[in-house]
Amino acid sequence: MSKLAAFLGRAIPTHQQKQSSHLGDRTIYVGASDIAGCPRKAALGKQSPKGHDIKTLLRFSRGHAAQAMYAEFFKTGGALFNEEVEVKHPQFPEIRCHIDFLFYANRQTKRLHIVEMKSTDGIPDEPYASWVDQLHVQMGLLQLTLDPEVEIGGSILVVDLNAGTYREFNSYTPNKLVFNQLMEKGQHILAAMRGDCAPRTEPGILCGYCPFRTGCPSHAVGLDLPSEILEAGRKYLVLNEQKKALDTRLDILKNDILTFADGAFKGASDGILINVTSVAESVMIDSFKLKRNYPDIFDQVTKPKAGFVKLEIKPFTPLAAQAA
After folding, report:
1. pLDDT digits (tens, 9 = 90+) for 95-104
2. Is residue 77 within 8 Å of residue 248, measured between CB atoms?
3. What sign results for the dihedral spanned by CA atoms 53, 57, 60, 66?
4. pTM confidence score
5. What percent of the residues of the chain are helix, what percent strand, and what percent coil, each to the nearest 5?
6. Domain boundaries, given as residue ranges, for the chain
7. Is 99 helix (H, G, I), strand (E, B) or coil?
8. What is the CATH number of domain 7-199+209-216?
9. CA–CA distance, 318 with 87 (Å, rounded to integer)
10. Contact 130, 113 (CB under 8 A)
11. pLDDT tens digits for 224-251?
């Protein structure tokens, strides 16, 4: 390991700890993100905190960087807001949240707007359910601490720094029924943290990042897919079928062009350039013959090939439905 790599291996965790210091000791309270996620992950994370690898810490730092960047944008535009506003439940202070941005028109305003910020690789068509639940926890807790006449709104600002794009999912307002259900979930997590009950599981799109996935009952073979993953699978199937149809059409168009070109060709009209070139014949090694006839040489010239993750998604009919 180089000196720079070793240095960053120490500096990045220290930086992340400093960036998150405003959150306090997260093992003693249940936050909005805990309630929006899986109760098992939240409870076990409080009982046995796990460290994060550098890749995860860098992803967290990207979120902090995006929030700092947009805070400067808001200030430059003259917006009035507070950052990282902590709000505790009046009766259960162990349940609390930290609001990324709380906007107001003036100090005497009767209208407040919460913005929950998310930094992602690719912006989804719709906000994830966990994002919406997190916002509802924030709006509900804030509502409990304010004059009933204060109007509260909320939105989710999703930013893709790599692509240079952003999108706001807007028009959220407090919902008492949703908030009460989320508070029940928060109480359940608190009870599980104390060891009073076994935590429930709620599999979702972030299961792949969970340090407690091993042994989780929701990942036993044969269990139903989480709703978000099921919807992602459906969209994948639809898009894959569209891709097949497009590939077929592309092959037909390609054949038309190659038939016209009849070999090497280059031409352009109205902003379209077509360039047809030939790739010369080449020689390749038959690894099967090499290993069979020259095993000693084969061992000297080969090297390990990294494995990869294979995804298979296809229509599925349960056996019970087939029998019916």
Report:
1. 999 999 999 9
2. no
3. negative
4. 0.75
5. 45, 15, 35
6. 7-199+209-216, 224-260
7. strand
8. 3.90.320.10
9. 47
10. no
11. 777 888 888 889 889 988 998 999 899 8
